[in-house]
Amino acid sequence: MDNHQLRKSINNITFLWMISCFVDMSYVVFQTYDPDIHNTLSSVIIYNPKIIYVMNIMSLFTILYETTRYNQVLIRLITICYVLVGCYGILRTSENTIRHDLFAVTIFSGIMVFMFHTIDRSFLKKLATYINIAISVKIILKKMIQENDIFTDECMFVLMFALHYCF
């Protein structure tokens, strides 16, 4: 096996592990979600050690996956690390603080930078990017009018990013 084939194999394996972790986390989130208790995605994740454990594993596989890419490695890796810093920051702050909102902005802006940087002629990628713009505006407007029930919006945003990332 030459270097190119080895790199491609490592890339495929890390991608599969990353997707497996994402599916596992999503399943646990939806099993844990209670609309009477949770109104944001972070309110579900923050108190669930299994989700945080799987998120750590997924983060490692994501970084490994990004380092094995052939194109745009540096900008992709920087934006993914930026998003991960935001994710870990959000899990360490109370939801009712400015710091939490700043970490949320870090996540959303990092994801949008990644999506715009990696957008191509793919209709699905463009659609996912434009839907995320609309979801971002909706979340901002909800926050401005003090409506805190944004769980569904956040889940859709993450789903659109996952679709963009996979294709």
Structure description:
The chain has helices at residues 3-32, 41-45, 49-67, 73-91, 98-118, 123-144, 151-166. The protein has 167 residues and is mostly helical. 23% of the residues are buried. The chain has one domain. It has seven helices and no strands.
In short:
This protein has 167 residues and is mainly alpha-helical.
Strand content: under 5%
Structural class: mainly alpha
- Report the C-alpha radius of gyration, rounded: 16 Å
Counting copies of identical and different chains, the oligomeric state is single chain
**Spatial separation of the terminal alpha carbons:** 26 Å
Low-confidence stretches: none
Features:
167 residues; mainly alpha; 0% strand; single chain
